[in-house]
Design brief:
By secondary structure, the chain is of the alpha+beta class. It is 36% helix and 27% strand. Strands 1-11-6-13-4-2-3 form a 7-stranded antiparallel beta sheet. The protein has a 4-stranded antiparallel beta sheet with strand order 5-12-9-10, with no helix packed on it. A hairpin with a 2-residue loop joins strand 9 and strand 10.
């Protein structure tokens, strides 16, 4: 009981996460999955430049040098400990905080991010074979989550290695298929194949928030940026020196 109280005390991240989640859920009502072009029109640019983005990103992602997600952010450790398979992650922008060295590795995405500040987060995700991401909810409803699969195994019959279970419904994403959703709905993910999968993850600032939530969202982003700076996240998020 004491340990549980300490985990949910006011000085803990979880305490403020749940308060923020309650505020957003009282004001924003939407389905789990929404049309990408309606809420993230800039996604059309990603599709039109898909070949260059895919080529540049895969050169980095498949090098074997991506840092582990749970080593960059300690709060993600429980997602690793669920099956002990390392989830590779290369942050390019985190809640408005840029990672210039990582962006320089993928010029096409650096150009895109420089022109779209409403894309508050961007990262390259490498899911290893047979990885299972346990059910969980995202912390911040002030953004939409956009997936753009770059390297995915087609398993036939409409199935793929990019399998998501969102609010009780299963989705199989294919390469080049953009997908926009609200990650504060309960969700999980699995890569049932024998090859890694590579997906670009973007968080897009929601334009449908009431004005008071917009102010709260920008405050949340400012705190997140300060926290990343204090945690020296840019250094922790660099590519490993050599392939493992």
């Amino acid at each position: 009981m004491r340990k549980k109280l300490l985990r949910w005390a006011p000085w803990n991240y979880r305490f403020w996460r749940e308060i923020a989640r309650w505020c957003y859920e009282r004001s924003l009502h939407n389905p789990a999955v929404v049309p990408a072009l309606d809420h993230f029109p800039a996604s059309a640019e990603l599709h039109s430049n898909f070949d260059a983005i895919r080529r540049e990103t895969l050169e980095v992602a498949l090098s074997g040098r991506l840092p582990a997600n749970h080593e960059i952010m300690e709060q993600q450790r429980t997602l690793y400990e669920f099956d002990r398979k390392v989830w590779g992650m290369l942050p390019l922008r985190g809640y408005g905080y840029d990672y210039p060295a990582n962006q320089a590795l993928i010029p096409s995405l650096r150009s895109f991010l420089s022109r779209h500040r409403d894309v508050v987060s961007a990262a390259v995700s490498l899911f290893p074979p047979r990885k299972v991401l346990r059910p969980h909810k995202g912390p911040f409803k002030g953004v939409w989550r956009f997936h753009l699969p770059l390297y995915v195994a087609d398993l036939g019959d409409g199935c793929s290695s990019c399998e998501l279970l969102i609010d009780g419904k299963t989705y199989h994403l294919q390469e080049g298929e953009g997908f926009l959703w609200d990650d504060t709905f309960l969700h999980s993910a699995v890569n049932p194949s024998d090859q890694p999968r590579v997906v670009l993850l973007f968080d897009v600032f929601r334009r449908d928030q009431p004005f008071w939530l917009v102010a709260m969202s920008w405050l949340f982003l400012a705190i997140a940026q300060l926290w990343q700076r204090l945690q020296n996240m840019r250094e922790r998020a660099l590519l490993r020196a050599t392939a493992s």
